[in-house]
Design brief:
By secondary structure, the protein is of the alpha+beta class. It has helices at 27-38, 76-88, 239-250, 275-283, 287-302, 307-318, 342-355, 358-364, 425-441, and strands at 47-54, 59-64, 91-100, 103-108, 134-137, 173-178, 186-188, 196-198, 207-210, 217-220, 229-234, 254-256, 267-272, 386-393, 396-404, 410-418. The longest helix has 17 residues, at 425-441.
Amino acid sequence: MLRYYTFPLFLVFVALSSCGVTHNITRKDKKEVRKAIELSPVFSKHFTGFVLYDPAKEEVLIQRNAHRYFTPASNTKILTFFTALHLLKDSMPYLEYAVKNDTIIFRGGGNPVFLHPDFEQPPLPSFLADTSKFLFFSMDNFRDDSYGEGWMWDDYNYAFQTEKSSLPIYENNVRTELPADGDSIFINPVYFQKAYTPLPERGDQLRIQRAEKANRFTFQLPIEHKENLVVSKPFIVSQDLICKLLSDTLHRRVAPWTQATDSLDFTSLYLPAQDTLYRRLLHQSDNFIAEQLLLMSAQKLYGYQNTKAAINYAKDSIFNFLTDELLWVDGSGISRYNLLTPAALVEILDSLQRKIPLERIKDLFPAGGISGTIGDWYGGTSTPYLFAKTGTLRNNHNLSGYIITKSNRLLIFSFMNNHFKGSSGKVKQEMERVLRMVYERF
């Protein structure tokens, strides 16, 4: 809970700051930044919330609509990241298997790295190569829906809304690659090659369209292209499809297991927790990884995968220090049912920087002018001064994270903008102006 200068604090944290403070923040400095927000012709046209917090002094320096609820979009991933750090710790569920006579039954642990083309693959578990036994795959530990609560049905064709599953395979996407100046596409996994139908006419770009309720794809080649083109499209997950993909990959038959597994004694396999997964979550705002992190968290807690179960546990046992209730329904922030306050986000970020070193935060969060979703914003200094997570949906743009000011002071902020018309360009420019003032003056 944060110390607001307008009312007393009932829960006090021990102040820990890794930045030395060499400059006193004046009342005039705070007034000027506050005016820059309140009198902004850009912010006046929509709903804006802002909190700026000094963790060393446990003091809120500036606040506007701090306890009002906003659509957070991918700022929700800050909650997912915090939850995964707390619950998964140094190991993440991978696979689990049980042996019954001449049969091996296995299930997924929700881990997104399995056959993911962008991640280094661990050695395949020995049980998958045991040809002396029949191999069966079960999905009965996945007790969730493929889509999150409030997701848009007509986004099924886009990779940002990939289906959740107990055993993600090939990131639950089909990748189509067209080499520079080439006329032949390459499909991964190759299993889907027969599911692709070309359109007769060429267009302005490589276009792939999946059928709404079937894994059938049409593609349109571009008239010309001078670079390598890659397009990812989600496939519809089913137990039968996963068995076919595994059979194709392992070069041995994998069959669906349809019987109960309650009496089976499963051995769980784990992978070391890797910051590469968290970095992709925060830098690239990967929705698929976000959802699977919550499923892995539930798997570790309860032995089954359910997003709501993980969220309910986190709300009751991890985020019970928050001033404002979390209205939280998915891991990624795709859903507009999520509602968070700037104050809650700052409290979570404050708790985070007390749990892990600042240097690790600086590595995992996008750096202004350098990396991730703010690589083109908040630059212009010799070293990055802003490390933060964006959250963007149509008509909404948010940014929450950390500023290291010119005077070497660590500050925490949440800047939330909802319900503006048009693109986010002018909103981002105005946010950058305000946050640069904070960097210069504080």
